[in-house]
Amino acid sequence: MKENKQIVRFGVSMENELLEKFDKLIHQKGYTNRSEAIRDLIREKLVEQAIEKDQPCFGIFSFIYDHTKRELEEKLTDFQHEHFNMIISTTHIHIDKDHCLEVIIMKGKAGELKKITDKVLSFKGVENGKLVLTAV
Ligand code: NI
């Protein structure tokens, strides 16, 4: 399908109060004009919808864990081998003597990614875990 990149202008009506809040918000986020902020909001919603529909997406899974728990490190390695077909890359950072940060980039259906990463988050010694889903 040929992409339609033609720019279309359209008018938006809203209450003054709502617009003031919106302007304040986008200013804080560093936008210099409303159009780009609105385009980003729409893109964000479209990604959310794709994810709800369980379409293929990417997952950025990050967590901190207790390196001193040897059995945990083994469980985390087993997890990655078990799901090797969904894992694109892994970055490991030794934070300090006792803690590690791991960032795993994954590919798959949103529901599956949520399910398998929730399991990791339930492991004892895994902290501050977060899965961010994104799609084109
Ligand atoms: Ni480490």
pLDDT < 50 stretches: none
Cα Rg: 20 Å
How would you characterize the largest beta sheet?
4 strands, antiparallel
Helix content: 40-55%
Helix/strand-derived category reads: alpha+beta
Order of helices and strands: HHEHEEHE
Number of helices: 4
Strand order of the largest sheet: 2-3-1-4
Provide a descriptive summary of the structure in words.
The chain is of the alpha+beta class and 136 residues long. The protein has a domain at 56-134: ACT-like. Chain A, domain 2 (Alpha-Beta Plaits, 2-Layer Sandwich), CATH 3.30.70. Helices cover 42% and strands 29% of the residues. The protein has helices at residues 16-28, 34-52, 70-82, 110-121, and strands at residues 56-66, 87-94, 99-109, 126-134. The radius of gyration is 20 Å and the shape is elongated. The mean pLDDT is 91. Nickel (II) ion (NI) binds at residues 67, 92, 94, 100.
Secondary-structure topology with pairs:
Blueprint: H1 16-28, H2 34-52, E1 56-66, H3 70-82, E2 87-94, E3 99-109, H4 110-121, E4 126-134
Antiparallel strand pairs: 1-3, 1-4, 2-3
Bound molecules: nickel (II) ion.
Quick structural summary:
It comes from Kryptobacter tengchongensis. Transcriptional regulator. By secondary structure, the protein is α+β, with helices and mostly antiparallel strands.
Keywords:
136 residues, alpha+beta, Alpha-Beta Plaits, 4-stranded antiparallel β-sheet, 4 helices, 29% strand, elongated, binds nickel (II) ion
